[in-house]
Amino acid sequence: MTSLIGAENPIALEDAMLVSQIAGGDLGEPMEELYRRYAGKLYWVGLQLLGNAGLADELVQECFVRLWRTAGRFDVVRGTVSAYMFVMARSIASDLRRRPSSRPLLAAEDAHVPSQADNADQILESLMVRDALDSLSPAHREVLMLCHAEGLTQSQIAQRLGLPLGTVKTRMYHGLRALKTALVLRGFND
Amino acid sequence: MTDPDAEHAEVAGWLLGPLDPDQSGHFKAHLETCDQCQREVAELSPVSHMVKDVFRGVDLATGPGKTEPPADLQARTMTRIRQASWKSRRRRGDLRMLAVTSAAVAVVAAGGIGIAVAEAAPAVLAAYTTSLHHEPGTTGSAQAVTTQVASDWSVQMNVQHLKPLPSGEFYECVWARPGSRPGHPEEIPGGTFTVGAGGSASVQMWTAANPDTFPTMKVVIEKAGSLTQQGTVVLVGTSQD
Q1: FRET pair for A33, CA 20 to 30 Å: which of A20, A77, A169, B179?
Q2: Interface probe with B: pick from A154, A165, A179, A189, most Cβ of B within 10 Å
């Protein structure tokens, strides 16, 4: 699994090295780089799970504090840093939801904090699939996005990109295979 | 569709769709007789379903990566981590001091001669945080963490949205006692810095100003060669234990 990360996912390897530097006591550039990479996605998770900008703000801060505390225990063989952080975000969202100060002043009908995390798994899965898509090479990601986001056929994609149809078919096939590998690295098993 | 590799590559189009009608019919016939493609369809089908689920009904304009967190969240997050780190180091430092003391007592009690070697990492003795806000007519903000290490005070400060200064001018940190005022300043100057076009900077300084005695922290604009220390105050804040 380690060789998979190194050979096929340089971003995941970079992430793991940054966490290793944090575990070694460097709280400067490695932490700031991981913030740049993941704060936006974590903030989005916070908004989806907690429905409140202030709580999403708190979730992001707590995620990075926990990352610092647990960096030494991160095991690159067990998965990617992104999966590690998203699972951590889900746990923190659950904690924040239970914290009394999350909703002391709002009447029940006014509170925007979702009462149940029924959709937490769906949101987390959505985020991980998107993250896996982001980790693909631009050529692979492009054909998959055109297919899904715009609903184009392979012939239409070939026309849009000015590529031979066979190239589009090959890229889509290898893109789907690379996506499967990326998902396995994020904890999705066969 | 005579190239075997091209036929197998059609698996992705079959799963992700939509295929063009003639391609779809051709691959359907091929799939019925090709064990390899049947295995690949079975293997990759869950992945294709997950991707379809992600894009089904999702507003791409508000998805992850399209939502920006507050601009000052990074600085607040980094300050919180440093505070947690320093508190942790302070606790460890206290324990280390206790361990060294205990070891020394044990050596004396045994009547022997020994040398206790302590870990070299200095203990943090006190920590303060300061949020600096801009004065009227100026812009920017800053967060600083000041820690006492041995007899020195280390200051880590992150500033945002400060105006880039013309050549020959710079920002300077100043710590002031209560009651300090123009004409009767009781201040200790600290480090100087500049900011880039984005107005941000991360500054590491050392100062002799004890935040207990000099609780007010200011950022002022100074000019090269000026010794008056009466520059325009841009940011100001009070240190909190």
Answers
A1: A77
A2: A154
Contact (CB, 8 A) for B8 and B40: yes
CA angle (A57, A58, A59) in 5-degree steps: 90
**Residue A31, CA distances (Å) to A57, A66, B55, B88, B231 in order:** 17, 12, 31, 17, 35
| Domains parsed from chain A with CATH numbers | 2-135 (1.10.1740.10), 137-190 (1.10.10.10)
| pLDDT tens string A120-135 | 777 778 888 888 888 8
Top-level CATH class of B73-238?
Answer: mainly beta
pTM: 0.54
CATH number of this structure's domain B4-62, picked from the four choices 1.10.1060, 2.40.160, 1.10.287, 1.10.10: 1.10.10
Asked if the interface predicted TM-score (ipTM) of this complex is over 0.90, the answer is no
**Number of neighbouring beta carbons within 10 Å of residue A144:** 23
Note whether A69 contacts B15, CB cutoff 8 Å: no
Regions in chain A scoring below 50 on pLDDT? 1-7, 102-117
Mean pLDDT, chain B, whole residue set: 75
Chain A closest-CA separation from residue B13 CA (Å):
7
What would the DSSP string read from start to end of A73-86? Answer: G--GGG--HHHHHH
Locate CATH 1.10.10 in chain B.
4-62
